[in-house]
């Protein structure tokens, strides 16, 4: 009766549940609008006016919209059901806040191309299979915490095509790019440029080696780098003096926050590096923890529902699509069988599924 066996189904179910747990670690029952400006996971809704919404709203209010996961942004207030949202969804503007009138949006949200589903200097959509690894700028004051392809960090985007072709590493990092595990934070060349004198001061500080793992030049034209790798392993005064004024990005060493704190404590309060670390980018020393949604005890009710919902809702759509298609075939047959589980909030167990297939076998024999 079915082109899928019970054991295949169970394996899929387990994988789906694991994935759902990974994608949806918290119970989506609280909208963070009233909590105001937070460092939190943000989802762009492309169908409701390219607004950013909180994790819970992405599931409860925008499940049938085209969503783009933006990961964390600092200082963001949920815009679900605010005047930035274009159309009402059912009876309420936000289903969690249940507001009949649109709420006032925050003035501090910074909207950029990410909210249109575009990323990086190359202004592309995210496509997992073809792209080099993407990393986010931890400073973000100029770029609004943009995500960048490693390829585009190295060179101008029209030369970035096929930049992985000659890659010596198999982890989607182009040759000449520092190993991903050799640094902890990344500051893009645009943000470095904006605070150029600050970074100059940092690079010439005697403790710069405790903070900076690499500087990586951004070749605005496709000039072969002087060094074979394109990576300057010894960030120092020498580098700034000897090389041309090419823009460059900075990779921060693990533990850079403590090192920056110690550097700051040794500086005069009038020092521009002190002021930068104190007032402009204090989060480089002590970052606001990402807002965590409270865990809910009925989190593991109906993981089947949770799983399918999470996967349909967005996030890593590409990897989920194959699973969803396979699931869809059996879901139709299973949905009647599973409805009581979903309604009672019971977890579907392997033996339940076995019973279902046994029942099907029995039925087909009877015919
Ligand atoms: Zn919300
Ligand atoms: Zn929406
Ligand atoms: Zn909402
Ligand atoms: Zn790019
Ligand atoms: Zn940046």
TrEMBL record:
Pfam families: zf-UBR (PF02207). The keyword Zinc applies. Residues 29-99 form the UBR-type domain. One of its GO terms (molecular function) is ubiquitin protein ligase activity. One of its GO terms (cellular component) is cytoplasm. CDD domains: UBR-box_UBR7 (cd19677). It comes from the Eukaryota. PROSITE patterns: ZF_UBR. SMART domains: ZnF_UBR1. A zinc finger (UBR-type) spans 29-99. Keywords: Metal-binding, Zinc, Zinc-finger. InterPro entries: UBR7, UBR7-like_UBR-box, Znf_UBR. The keyword Metal-binding applies. This is LAQU0S02e08350g1_1.
